[in-house]
Backbone:
């Protein structure tokens, strides 16, 4: 909020700032532009694996309690972007990141910097729920799968864990199918069930941000719709980044959508603009309408 | 509809030929084992009995049983594994789970690989210098066990790393994604799911440690040690001991006039105990694999 107003306030003195501001927001409705509190601010983010740069300095904001759709063809840097945000990119030895990512105004990469920063990367990751495209049921019981993160955070009492497990499994639309066999192995579930288990696990540490990377890839359409309904509910308490290959899914769920291509943002705007007949960039129109070549 | 053309017939002939060649090579592995065992047992038959196991050698090693050597071998193997297994497992966890590709870690890797390639006689000399003299353990069970431990360590590290690497990376990532530390992921997911491979690798080192003669000959195993029949704890850590491999060597080459069947019976005991341990390893692996979780 403070940052927004400062940019507006100094607009007359610094011509660059308002220009960038209007570019970021685009012609979105004034009500949207006034939505305060950026949850995530990405500025000048560059990522390279060895000599190969895969994200070429992108900047964008994600507002609190919005669903941001991220679309784009393979190899456009969608997954890498998510990995930068929760810093699991640290586990790729040859990855180099520059630029800044701020969550709640704190830089995720600069521990103890002037803005605070996340001294504890595990604290950062607990703020973020991450759902990978391929389902991963951990080879422990379904209950333990969901209780894993709370336990890692130091919770051990059954009376604390049980409600969390049930709530997360319900939110992931899995509870009814597994409530009678919570002690059977997570790996023995079907692919779609494991994917929902992954979602339940991502919710289990009560994150403030939920990153969904192609979550519906292994799930049938009916269940997908059920989870989409849950996401609309979760939006009230969480900020959601929805990376998806299903353009229509982004259109259904997101308020704004970002089109990422070859590590660059082609366009980020409200869905009214992005899915209209004339978004600002012609490539957006072509990609969304399947005539991208 | 499915017509068998000459080309198809040729393809199928080749397929079955390939299969039988591969099968033949694999099956031929049984032959040497059966031959060795059959030959040994046949020659050893006159001396083989339960009392051969629990008797002590008498009459200047020309008669009696192998009890002191059998117990000595068990001592050496278990003490050496008790030392090597924890160090090896922990080192392997570091190398596989934590180590990044830095020059220092490359040196560690290189050391492990080269240690595995050192001949056992060189290990023996190292053990003699390091444990017997420098550490002042003297010629003892302890010095011999530690020498065996150094010898088995690199192989334990390699097999443990392999077992750890067989746990899919996606499991680790799933743990990290919810804010788990590396150690939390290792403790709750990686180790429980690689323990069967780790244990198998360690148990297979039993046979190697039991069979080696050179390292213990220089560091603690002796020609003869007076032990009473059936004594389960004949040696202290600082005592010298007898061992099956050493015993086999001495009665075959150093003692004149030993009944021919005795060395063969000793070999059968050595081979039999090793096979027993291997069978245990296989049983354990089958049991743990039946509980495999993905």
Residues:
């Amino acid at each position: 909020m403070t940052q927004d107003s400062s940019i507006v306030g100094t607009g007359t003195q610094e011509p660059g700032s308002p220009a960038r501001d209007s570019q970021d927001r685009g012609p979105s409705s004034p009500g949207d532009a006034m939505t305060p509190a950026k949850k995530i601010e990405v500025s000048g983010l560059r990522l390279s694996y060895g000599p190969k740069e895969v994200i070429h300095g992108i900047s964008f904001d994600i507002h609190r309690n919005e669903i941001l759709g991220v679309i784009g063809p393979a190899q456009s840097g969608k997954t890498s972007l998510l990995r930068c945000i929760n810093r699991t990119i640290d586990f790729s030895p040859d990855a180099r990141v520059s630029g800044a990512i701020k969550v709640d105004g704190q830089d995720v990469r600069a521990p103890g910097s002037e803005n605070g920063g996340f001294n504890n990367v595990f604290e950062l990751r607990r703020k973020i729920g991450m759902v990978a495209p391929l389902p991963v049921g951990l080879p422990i019981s379904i209950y333990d799968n969901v209780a894993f993160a709370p336990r890692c955070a130091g919770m051990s009492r059954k009376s604390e864990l049980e409600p969390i497990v049930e709530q997360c499994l319900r939110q992931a639309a899995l509870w009814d199918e597994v409530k009678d066999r919570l002690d059977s192995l997570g790996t023995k579930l079907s692919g779609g069930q494991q994917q929902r288990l992954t979602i339940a696990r991502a919710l289990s540490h009560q994150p403030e941000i939920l990153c969904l990377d192609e979550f519906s890839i292994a799930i049938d359409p009916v269940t997908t719709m059920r989870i989409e309904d849950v996401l609309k509910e979760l939006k009230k308490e969480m900020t959601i980044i929805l990376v998806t290959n299903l353009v229509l899914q982004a259109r259904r769920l997101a308020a704004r959508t970002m089109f990422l291509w070859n590590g660059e943002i082609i366009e980020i705007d409200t869905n009214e603009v992005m899915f209209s007949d004339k978004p600002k960039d012609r490539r957006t129109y072509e990609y969304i309408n399947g005539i991208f070549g | 509809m499915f017509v068998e053309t000459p080309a198809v017939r040729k393809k199928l002939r080749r397929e079955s030929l390939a299969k039988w060649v591969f099968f033949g090579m694999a099956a031929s592995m049984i032959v040497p084992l059966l031959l060795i065992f059959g030959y040994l047992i046949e020659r050893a038959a006159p001396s083989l009995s339960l009392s051969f196991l629990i008797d002590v050698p008498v009459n200047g090693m020309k008669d009696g049983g192998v009890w002191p050597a059998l117990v000595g071998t068990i001592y050496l193997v278990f003490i050496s594994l008790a030392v090597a297994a924890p160090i090896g497992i922990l080192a392997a966890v570091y190398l596989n789970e934590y180590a990044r590709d830095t020059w220092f870690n490359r040196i560690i890797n290189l050391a492990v690989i080269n240690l595995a390639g050192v001949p056992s006689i060189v290990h023996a000399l190292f053990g003699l210098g390091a444990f017997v003299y420098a550490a002042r353990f003297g010629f003892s069970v302890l010095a011999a066990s530690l020498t065996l431990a150094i010898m088995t360590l690199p192989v334990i590290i390699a097999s443990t790393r392999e077992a750890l690497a067989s746990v899919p990376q996606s499991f680790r990532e799933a743990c990290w994604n919810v804010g788990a530390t590396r150690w939390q992921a290792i403790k709750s997911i990686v180790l429980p799911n690689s323990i069967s491979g780790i244990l198998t690798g360690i148990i297979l080192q039993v046979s190697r440690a039991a069979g080696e003669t050179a390292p213990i000959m220089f560091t603690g195993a002796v020609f003869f040690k007076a032990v009473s029949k059936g004594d389960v704890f004949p040696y202290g850590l600082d005592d010298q001991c007898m061992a099956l491999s050493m015993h086999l060597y001495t009665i075959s080459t150093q003692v004149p006039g030993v009944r021919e069947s005795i060395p063969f019976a000793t070999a059968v005991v050595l081979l039999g105990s090793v096979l027993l341990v291997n069978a245990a390893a296989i049983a354990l692996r089958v049991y743990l694999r039946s509980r495999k979780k993905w």
In short: The beta strands of chain A are 38-49, 52-63, 67-71, 95-103, 106-107, 128-131, 209-213, 239-243, 256-261, 264-270. Chain A has 13 helices and ten strands. Confidence is low (pLDDT under 50) at residues 1-35, 112-116 of chain A.
